[in-house]
């Protein structure tokens, strides 16, 4: 587990380094009139400058970088994150925050079905729930799996 966390931290550090360069590009790309409407194409252009991709999924917008994704209800939320002068990947993808493991509850009830669950980190810096007793992946009967990653 320790090794996995160290590996993940190295990956995050490398990504942050790459992104420092990309932020500069974004700073240039956002030099646009603020009253102009925020369109899907414009947010996608901004996202792509940061090596991210954006897709519509039902009423949500899914921002992704590799396997890391986050769902947003509004385009503007993505826009506001990306046009910040200084941002960390973990601002955009909270699951990439190396300190987040401290915040994750362990052995607490699933908020949807109330079974006891633990949160464990995956290889790519995300989290997934496992049943506290069996240690098998928690397949929630009350809530779709995607909801966990989106929240
Ligand atoms: Zn559950």
Quick structural summary:
37% of the residues lie in helices and 19% in strands.
Tally of helical segments: 5
Named once each, the bound ligands are:
zinc ion
Shape: flat
Biggest sheet: strand arrangement:
1-2-3
Rg of Cα set: 17 Å
Strand content: 15-25%
* Amino-to-carboxy terminus distance: 24 Å
Largest sheet: 3 strands, antiparallel
Strand segment count: 6
The oligomeric state is: single chain
The assigned structural class equals alpha+beta
Low-confidence stretches: none
Could you spell the SSE succession in H and E letters? HHEEEHHEEEH
Mean pLDDT: 78
Q: Give the helix proportion (percent range).
A: 25-40%
General description of the model:
With 151 residues, this protein is an alpha+beta fold. Helix content is 37%, strand content 19%. The chain contains five helices and six strands; from the N terminus they run ααβββααβββα. It has helices at residues 2-29, 40-49, 75-82, 89-92, 145-150, and strands at 53-57, 60-65, 68-72, 108-109, 116-121, 127-131. The strands form two sheets. Strands 1-2-3 form a three-stranded antiparallel beta sheet, with helices on one face. Strands 4-5-6 form a three-stranded antiparallel beta sheet, with no helix packed on it. A hairpin with a 5-residue loop joins β5 (116-121) and β6 (127-131). α2 runs parallel beside α3 (75-82). The model has no long low-confidence stretch (mean pLDDT 78). The structure holds zinc ion. Zinc ion binds next to loops.
